[in-house]
Structures are given as structure tokens and as C-alpha cells.
């Protein structure tokens, strides 16, 4: 079948988009437009509309019951930018996103490495590892809350019986331990996801290089460092980026485990906005905070995307 | 051969293999522990909950019916199932033709895929207030339809990311054959392409259904009455009680996630394949 090139599109072979010989290009373009129309509408509803609406709310005094009561210009945006508590909450969100993504990619990759070594067992283990991924974060938090409970929690019970501690610890009542608890619950939820994606990346590596290195007498650790890691660097960077974006969405674990406490220790930007909007009904300021937070995520994420693109293009 | 060569751990001769087995088993224990403990607590009596043992001393079945009696658990589960399944169907119905047009027909090939994936970066909290007022205006606040609409649209980037690789692997000759037989684009997509990538569509559908089923933040803001609350919101309300009955809370949590586990277990092959082949290439 010969393709008939038409005017406005230079079709790359990779996309394999072919004009059809039996219908006019114009008609085919109308069909194509109809196919993508619902998605375009969806994107407008989920991205453009919220952005414009948030700008409108942020520049006016608004409550949940009565939006747009009075135009206040940039007052709420300025208040948000100079709000120390909000700055700290944003900083905590960023720190959590990076720390959790780093820890989870590292642990997940080593879990995948262990599984890939035991290929026969590996698939079975991976299926079981899907459980945390399937579990709603709210239930994950409930399970960990029961484990960490000061009165009758499993962890305190085990530590007391082993004689490591004399009195039960309140894991969710001190800032450091509360963050650690949220971190562990998040790790539990996401490590399997990272492991499955890393597992796939490891399986798609070419054999020849490894065999050559083996013949040359390279040790397993040398091969991991000089061959496997450079080869999976790009997929791992993709996973890291994805996990970073997911990390910024942390909410459910905070809600159930600590409700932002003790004090405001685990109040992230997302949780603070939720409380401001749905508990204090201050929609105007909540909208201003949401806008600022979204922009901050963009500013933080874009360099990572750039780095990632640079790394993918300069693959060994 | 591949895997053994790849991590450099030859069978039988290598202490690293033992290390790998140990690591895999430890991580497995870690993955299973919270769920196992949740199961154990769901059979504990009130005083037993405070003892801090792993297994119940004097197991009871009372917590399970108790959880259903104490809350509108049945309604919550039904709401979650209705909303997440219909939202999943909506997501696929929008994503599949659009992905086909972008990948196979070259429609907006440069801009639209990037815009679709980029829209996933925004956290859900961005939509909380705008969607609240949108649904309020069109009269869908606190309804199944409202949540279905919001979830159905929000999961499109994930579905596109997962379905894309499957679409790209369909041999173009098959489509050309369909075209020669006189099938139009729509017929080709529905009767030729969709059956070929059915496993990918199945995995993607399950994943977006589970994402909606698990969602909490938007559900908490867009539902107002018990009759409309989803399971995650219902379980979170348990937290508000001063006298939390841990046994019932564990039973209620499990009652909601057992269906997901069953689906996941039955579809495990598709799920692992779908996750492994989607996206990270």
C-alpha cells in the first residue's frame, strides 16, 4: 500500500499515521477530530477551567456558600506568599515528595533486583506485592494506625515484649516519629509499584553485554555498577519523576494518621488547603494557596523533567 | 537465562542468590504484615485489642456484622462500586478513540499527547474547589453522576499513558487489511484494533477503576450526605469517633478492599503486564 502524502503533515514512520487511500484526507481528518474532541473537552474541564476559576476566586472574597463577594485584587495572593505557616507547609510537601521518591526508588529497585534473580518466584512475589498498590491509602493508614497505636498497637507490643522500651511510644504524637510513620506507610504503598516497573526495565536489558563482562571476569557487583545501573538509569529516572509527582499529592495518609498534627507538624500544603476550604470555608484564601502551590510544583518539577530528558538523550 | 545473566547470579553457586531470596522474603513479609494485622484485629474482642498481640487471644466474629450494623457500610461500598466502575468506563470511552487518533492517525501528534500527560502533574487538590462549584452549578453536587464525571475525566492521563504502548504495538498491516475490506476508522478501531489490545484495555480499566475506588480527597468534598459517601470517606468518618472500635474499623476496612483484591487476583496476569508495558520505556 503506497501512502499518499498530503500537505500539512510530515508523518514520521514512528507514528505510523497513514492517510487512507480509500477516503479523502479531509474526511479522515474530520473523523480524527471527532475521536479527540471528548478528550480535548476533558482537558479543558480538568485543567483550564480550574486554573481560571481559581484565579477568579483568589482575587475575590469568597466563601463556600457565597463565592465572589468582593473583588480584592492581589491581597489574598500577597497574604498567601507572606504566610509563614503556608511557606513551612509547602516546604514540607516538597521535602516529603523528594525524600519519599528517593527512598522508594532505591528500595523498589533492590526489591526488583532480588525478584529478577529468582525469576521463577519473582512473578508470584510481584503479584503478592500488588496488594499494597491496590489498597486504598485511607485503609493503608488505618492498618498502620492500628500497628502504631500507643495503647495495644502491634509495634509497641513487640518492642515492650522484647524489652527494648519500658513504656509505649506515641508514634503519631511527636513530629519526627509522626513523619517517619507517614513515610513508612507511604513506602509500603509505593515500593511494589516501583519494583514492578523496575522489574520490567531489568527484564528488557540486552544479554550480550552481561555475558561479555562475565567472560572478562567482572564480579556481580562490578556488573551491577558498571553495566546494569547505567542501562536502567533512564527508566529509573522516569519512575523517580512519576513518584515525585505522586508524592506531591500526599493527603490521605496525613488525614487518617495524624490529621496534620501533632500541632501543625505534619500539615502539608494540600492538607492545609483542604482544611481552609472545607472546615473554615475560606475559599478565597484556599484558592490563592492552591494556585501558589500548583506553581511551586511546576517550578520544582520542570528542572527534574529537563534533567530527565537530558539523561534519556545521552544514554550510554 | 536472561535474568540470571543479567543480575550475574548464577544458579546454585552463588551466595548472592541466597541474599536475593532473603531480601525477597523480607520485603514480602513487610508487604503482607499490615493487611494480615488488619485481618487479625478484625477478629479481636475489645479488651484483646489493647493487649498488643499479633493474633487474637479469643477470636470473635462479631466485628464483621457489627461494622455493617454500626455504619452505612453497605451503602458506602455500593456507592464506591457504582461510581468507580462507571467512571472507568467513561475514561476508556474517551481515551481509546483519542489515543487511536493521536497514535495511528497523527491527529495533534505533537501537542496533545504531551498536554494530556502534563495535566497529570497537577495535584487533585487543585480541582477540589473548582469542581465543587461546577457540580453545584450543574446540579450534580452530592450525586453519583457528579463523581463519575470528575473521576472519569481526571483519570484520562493515566489511561492514555497505559494504553499508548499497546496501541503502538499493533501491526499497521492488520489495519490496512481492514481498510481494504472497506472498514472505516471507527469499525477498524472497534472490531479490529480493540480485540487485539483487549488485555491492555482490561488492565487499564481495572487500574483506573481502582484509582477511583481509592480516591478520598475529592470524594470528601463533593459528597455531603451519608447516602452518597464513598467507602474511603465512610472509613475516614470512623476516625472522628472518640470511641473508636478498632475491631469494627478493621472489619469495615477489609470489607471494602476484599472485592479489589479478588479482582486483582483474578486479573493478576493482565495487571502486571499492563503496568510493566505501560509508560516506562
From TrEMBL, chain A:
ABC transmembrane type-1 domain ranges (all copies): 90-304
InterPro entries, per database record: ABC_transporter_permease, MetI-like, MetI-like_sf
UniProt-listed Gene3D superfamilies: MetI-like (1.10.3720.10)
Subcellular location: Cell membrane
Topology in membrane: Multi-pass membrane protein
Residues that span the membrane, as ranges: 30-58, 94-118, 125-147, 159-180, 187-206, 226-246, 253-274, 286-305
Domain of life: Bacteria
Ranges in coiled-coil conformation: none
Alphabetical keyword list: Cell membrane, Membrane, Sugar transport, Transmembrane, Transmembrane helix, Transport
Family under the similarity heading: Belongs to the binding-protein-dependent transport system permease family.
Protein name from the UniProt record: Multiple sugar transport system permease protein
Organism: Kaistia geumhonensis
Lineage per the UniProt record: Bacteria, Pseudomonadati, Pseudomonadota, Alphaproteobacteria, Hyphomicrobiales
TrEMBL record, chain B:
Pfam families (UniProt xref): BPD_transp_1 (PF00528)
Residues spanning the membrane: 18-39, 81-103, 115-135, 147-167, 188-213, 246-267
InterPro entries referenced in this protein's UniProt entry, alphabetically: BP-dep_ABC_trans_perm, MetI-like, MetI-like_sf
Membrane topology: Multi-pass membrane protein
Coiled-coil regions listed: none
UniProt superkingdom: Bacteria
Domain (ABC transmembrane type-1) ranges: 77-267
Localization per Swiss-Prot or TrEMBL: Cell membrane
Record keyword rRNA-binding present: no
Primary location class: membrane
SUPFAM superfamilies named in the record: MetI-like
Keyword annotations of the record: Cell membrane, Membrane, Sugar transport, Transmembrane, Transmembrane helix, Transport
Function as written in the Swiss-Prot or TrEMBL entry: Part of the ABC transporter complex MalEFGK involved in maltose/maltodextrin import. Probably responsible for the translocation of the substrate across the membrane.
Family stated for the protein in its record: Belongs to the binding-protein-dependent transport system permease family. MalFG subfamily.
PANTHER family in alphabetical order: MALTOSE TRANSPORT SYSTEM PERMEASE-RELATED, MALTOSE_MALTODEXTRIN TRANSPORT SYSTEM PERMEASE PROTEIN MALG
Identification of the protein by name: Maltose/maltodextrin transport system permease protein MalG
Amino acid at each position: 500500500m503506497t501512502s499518499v502524502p498530503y500537505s500539512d503533515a510530515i508523518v514520521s514512520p514512528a507514528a505510523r499515521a497513514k492517510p487512507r487511500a480509500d477516503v479523502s484526507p479531509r474526511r479522515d481528518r474530520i473523523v480524527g477530530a471527532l475521536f479527540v474532541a471528548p478528550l480535548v473537552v476533558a482537558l479543558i474541564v480538568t485543567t483550564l477551567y480550574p486554573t481560571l476559576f481559581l484565579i477568579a476566586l483568589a482575587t475575590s472574597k469568597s466563601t463556600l456558600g457565597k463565592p465572589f463577594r468582593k473583588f480584592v485584587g492581589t491581597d489574598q495572593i500577597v497574604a498567601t506568599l507572606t504566610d509563614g505557616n503556608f511557606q513551612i507547609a509547602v516546604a514540607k510537601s516538597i521535602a516529603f515528595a523528594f525524600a519519599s521518591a528517593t527512598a522508594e526508588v532505591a528500595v523498589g529497585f533492590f526489591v526488583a533486583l532480588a525478584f529478577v534473580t529468582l525469576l521463577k518466584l519473582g512473578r508470584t512475589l510481584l503479584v503478592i506485592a500488588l496488594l499494597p498498590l491496590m489498597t486504598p491509602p485511607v485503609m493503608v493508614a488505618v492498618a498502620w494506625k492500628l500497628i502504631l497505636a500507643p495503647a495495644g498497637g502491634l509495634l509497641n507490643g513487640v518492642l515492650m515484649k522484647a524489652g527494648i522500651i519500658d513504656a509505649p511510644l506515641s508514634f503519631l504524637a511527636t513530629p519526627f516519629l509522626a513523619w517517619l510513620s507517614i513515610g513508612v506507610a507511604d513506602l509500603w504503598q509505593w515500593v511494589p509499584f516501583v519494583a514492578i516497573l523496575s522489574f520490567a526495565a531489568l527484564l528488557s536489558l540486552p544479554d550480550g553485554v552481561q555475558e561479555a563482562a562475565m567472560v572478562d571476569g567482572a564480579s556481580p557487583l562490578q556488573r551491577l555498577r558498571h553495566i546494569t545501573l547505567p542501562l536502567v538509569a533512564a527508566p529509573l529516572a522516569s519512575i523517580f519523576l512519576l513518584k515525585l509527582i505522586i508524592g506531591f499529592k500526599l493527603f490521605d495518609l496525613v488525614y487518617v494518621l495524624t490529621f496534620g498534627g501533632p500541632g501543625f507538624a505534619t500539615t502539608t500544603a494540600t492538607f492545609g488547603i483542604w482544611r481552609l476550604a472545607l472546615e473554615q470555608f475560606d475559599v478565597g484564601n484556599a484558592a490563592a494557596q492552591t494556585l501558589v502551590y500548583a506553581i511551586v510544583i511546576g517550578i520544582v518539577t520542570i528542572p527534574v523533567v529537563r534533567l530527565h530528558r537530558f539523561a534519556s538523550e545521552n544514554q550510554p | 537465562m536472561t535474568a540470571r545473566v543479567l543480575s550475574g547470579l548464577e544458579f546454585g553457586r552463588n551466595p548472592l542468590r541466597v541474599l536475593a531470596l532473603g531480601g525477597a522474603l523480607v520485603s514480602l513479609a513487610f508487604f503482607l504484615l499490615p493487611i494480615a494485622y488488619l485481618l487479625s484485629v478484625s477478629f479481636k474482642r475489645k479488651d484483646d485489642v489493647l493487649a498488643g498481640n499479633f493474633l487474637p487471644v479469643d477470636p470473635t466474629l462479631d466485628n464483621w456484622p457489627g461494622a455493617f450494623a454500626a455504619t452505612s457500610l453497605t451503602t458506602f461500598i455500593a456507592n464506591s462500586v457504582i461510581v468507580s466502575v462507571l467512571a472507568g468506563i467513561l475514561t476508556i470511552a474517551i481515551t481509546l478513540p483519542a489515543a487511536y487518533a493521536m497514535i495511528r492517525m497523527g491527529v495533534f501528534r505533537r501537542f496533545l499527547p504531551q498536554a494530556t500527560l502534563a495535566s497529570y502533574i497537577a495535584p487533585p487538590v487543585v480541582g477540589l474547589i473548582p469542581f465543587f462549584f461546577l457540580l453545584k452549578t450543574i446540579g450534580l453536587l452530592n450525586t453519583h453522576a457528579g463523581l463519575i464525571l470528575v473521576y472519569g475525566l481526571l483519570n484520562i492521563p493515566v489511561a492514555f499513558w497505559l494504553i499508548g504502548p499497546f496501541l503502538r504495538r499493533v501491526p499497521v498491516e492488520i489495519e490496512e487489511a481492514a481498510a481494504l475490506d472497506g472498514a472505516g476508522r471507527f469499525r477498524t478501531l472497534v472490531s479490529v484494533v480493540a480485540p487485539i489490545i483487549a488485555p491492555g484495555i482490561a488492565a487499564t480499566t481495572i487500574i483506573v477503576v481502582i484509582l477511583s475506588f481509592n480516591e478520598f480527597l475529592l470524594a470528601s468534598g463533593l459528597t455531603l450526605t451519608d447516602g452518597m459517601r464513598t467507602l474511603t470517606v465512610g472509613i475516614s468518618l470512623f476516625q472522628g469517633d472518640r470511641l473508636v472500635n478498632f475491631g469494627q474499623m478493621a472489619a469495615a476496612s477489609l470489607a471494602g478492599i476484599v472485592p479489589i483484591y479478588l479482582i486483582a487476583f483474578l486479573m493478576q496476569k493482565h495487571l502486571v503486564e499492563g503496568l510493566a508495558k505501560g509508560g516506562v520505556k
